[in-house]
Amino acid sequence: MITTKDIDNPLIKFVLHLGDNALIMGHRNSEWCGHGPILEQDIALTNIALDQVGQARNFYQYAAELISETNGEQLTEDSLAYLRDSWDFKNCLLAELPNGDWAQTILKQFIVSAYQYHLYQALANNQNEQLAAIASKSLKELNYHLRWSSDWVLRLGDGTTESKKRMEDAIAILWSYTNEWIDFADYEMIILGDSHHSIQQDWKAKIKSVFDEAGLMIPVDGWMQKGGKVGNHTEHLGYILTDMQFLQRAYPNAEW
Amino acid sequence: MKTFIRKMFYGDYGEEKNNAAESNSTNASKNEWPLWEVFIRSKQGLDHKHVGSLHAADAVMALENARDVYTRRGEGVSIWLVESKNIHASNPDDSAALFEPANDKIYRHPSFYELPDELKHM
């Protein structure tokens, strides 16, 4: 058992936040493996899940390095993923919500990809070289995630009566979880600096343009959920961790 | 009058009742996305080669699916897609008439020329 919740260093918090978002999204998407609506889309989503787990690895490796530089604690990407509890995780709540139907999964992916795409673009120019390198590497993947998910928002929103209704239901269910992505925590503001303005604007503009094209309405402003970035999670994260961390906890240091 | 010429399509091998040429009118096809044939060029300068097929609603989705299904391990630098119904194939029943006459005409192979030693890659 390790914990990262008392760490104060904004860079470490930020890197853990990025890793947690990627890992939890990747885990949720991996739940579709073998259950996709059609073989080709099953593979598409599993590919995206693998990209996200790969990004999580990069961020966790960097976080482990930073933590050991700061306090000498020897951590690895695996201990960060498998040995922390839910209050240590800093992912946005949307990432941990259940997949729901295909429309909800698509909407989640679209919201997150639109955010990560603009975030990584900003980070690619960050003065922190390690962050810039991870972001540039991930951008090619994000390019595709964003294309794939926007495409599906269009197909469902501008498709049949049923598919449009599913998409509208997904928006009604998930919308209050969208704002957390651009409601920046202190540690994000410190690392992102002024670039956070453009991330907010670009993210909003992207969502508006895809929704407009798909004939979908952006809901009126209302109550927005938050808390994930500082470790206050929904009950769903606990279930994810139970599932994801079982093997390492039951058989510590098990290897393939 | 009986028609002896039947248009053959890719996928017409196998059971006559479920063949591709007639599938446009079957109920199953209304719920299924069309089939596409995928061709991948593995590197610049080589030909595109047929690697398999997939289902997709349209060409845009077919291209994304092909990328996911057939190029995940760095197999390609270019993808071509053709909707399977657009491929016209020879009838397997005609194969004797079409191909066997070539079997005993070895003189059509350019294998009787004396090649100079300097030629390495013929």
Structure notes:
The complex is a heterodimer of chains A (256) and B (122). Chain A is an all-alpha fold and 256 residues long. Chain A has a single domain, classed as Ferritin, core subunit, four-helix bundle (Ferritin). In chain A, 67% of the residues lie in helices and 0% in strands. In chain A, helix 5 (102-123) runs antiparallel to helix 6, helix 5 crosses helix 7 and helix 6 (129-157) crosses helix 7 (161-174). In chain A, 40% of the residues are buried. By secondary structure, chain B is α+β, with helices and mostly antiparallel strands. Chain B has a single domain (16-108), classed as Phenylacetic acid degradation B (Ubiquitin-like (UB roll), Roll). In chain B, strands 2-1-3 form a three-stranded antiparallel sheet, with helices on one face. In chain B, a hairpin with a 6-residue loop joins strand 1 and strand 2. The radius of gyration of chain B is 20 Å and the shape is flat. The N and C termini of chain B lie far apart (52 Å). The model of chain B is unreliable at 14-27 (pLDDT under 50).
Shape of chain A: globular
What is the percent of helical residues of chain B? 10-25%
Strand content of chain B: 15-25%
Whole-number radius of gyration of chain A? 18 Å
CATH architecture of chain A: Up-down Bundle
Helix content of chain A: 55-70%
Shape of chain B: flat
What descriptive keywords fit this protein?
heterodimer; A: 256 residues; mainly alpha; Ferritin; globular; B: 122 residues; alpha+beta; Ubiquitin-like (UB roll); 3 helices; 17% helix; 17% strand; flat
Walk me through the topology.
The complex is a heterodimer of chains A (256) and B (122).
Chain A: H1 10-30, H2 39-71, H3 77-82, H4 93-96, H5 102-123, H6 129-157, H7 161-174, H8 186-192, H9 195-214, H10 235-250
Chain B: H1 28-31, E1 35-41, E2 48-55, H2 59-70, E3 78-83, H3 95-99
Antiparallel strand pairs in B: 1-2, 1-3
